[in-house]
Specification:
This protein is of the alpha+beta class. It folds into 2 domains: about 190 residues, Bira Bifunctional Protein, Domain 2 (BirA Bifunctional Protein, domain 2), CATH 3.30.930.10; about 40 residues, Roll (SH3 type barrels). About 25% of the residues lie in helices and about 30% in strands. The chain has 5 helices and 14 strands. The protein starts with a strand and ends with a strand.
């Protein structure tokens, strides 16, 4: 079993690894975890909020020199599927909300933030951060739709056990990716998407509409089919689920 450095307290597990990378070349697959993250980072500059001792914050560094910068979204897809696979062991109705949040029904149970540093056409390094709500039972009112594994199942979970399980699942997923399984990953990811079937409401900065998911582009854009049959690609910040 690959080992994880457990941090008693940290501002951000991602930032911890990025700080290390700025001062030295650290070994690939170096992973850290904490059950007390004070300033976790989320997508779009948001903060990942977790009660001390109740959730898992995890980060790992990889050097995916086999991937071009334009294909970096495949890392997000592989990681999102790995997180879903872990949670599938404990409950049903787990899906991936594009681009890489993890949902139980209509509630968010986990989030992922991948920070890539590019060097020319290649990825110099990737720091993959994952936060999972595990034993937390109350959340701040500022969070719109959180849920934890304990709230779903009624059970208390061993955080270190889940951290080790997640680490091994991520390592396996990344190893498979390095062996050229991109097509399979893309297919499984598409089928695992939240609101994968049927028409659903979406919002952009200046409009609201109903559409259905038709695919994901190589760069990670969401391809939506509008009710009139028009297909359009949307980047991460261009569209939101209503």
């Amino acid at each position: 079993m690959a080992s994880i450095l457990l941090l008693d307290e940290v501002d951000s597990t991602n930032q911890y690894l990025i700080n290390l990378l700025e001062s030295e070349k650290i070994e690939e697959s170096t992973a850290v975890a904490s059950f007390n993250q004070t300033r976790g980072k989320g997508q779009k500059g948001n903060e990942w909020i977790s009660e001390s001792g109740k959730g898992l914050s995890y980060s790992i560094v990889i050097y995916p020199n086999y991937l071009s910068a334009r294909n970096q979204f495949i890392i997000s897809q592989a990681v999102a599927l790995a997180v879903k696979s872990i949670l599938d062991e404990y409950t049903k109705d787990i899906s991936i909300k594009w681009p890489n949040d993890t949902y139980w029904k209509d509630k968010k149970i986990a989030g992922t933030l991948i920070e890539n540093r590019l060097k020319g056409d290649l990825i110099d390094y990737s720091v993959i951060g994952i936060g999972i709500n595990i034993n937390q039972e109350t959340f701040p009112d500022t969070l719109p739709n959180p849920v934890s594994l304990k709230q779903i199942t009624g059970l208390e979970f061993n955080l270190m056990e889940l951290a080790n399980k997640l680490n091994n699942k991520i390592l396996t997923a990344l190893k498979e990716l390095s062996h050229g399984t991109e097509v399979e990953i893309q297919r499984y990811y598409l089928n695992a998407l939240y609101r994968r079937d049927g028409f659903h409401p979406y919002n952009t900065e200046d409009s609201s509409f109903t559409a259905r998911i038709r695919g994901i582009s190589a760069k990670g854009s969401l391809i939506l089919e509008h009710e009139d049959g028009t297909l359009k690609d949307y980047a991460f910040k261009e569209v939101s689920f209503a």
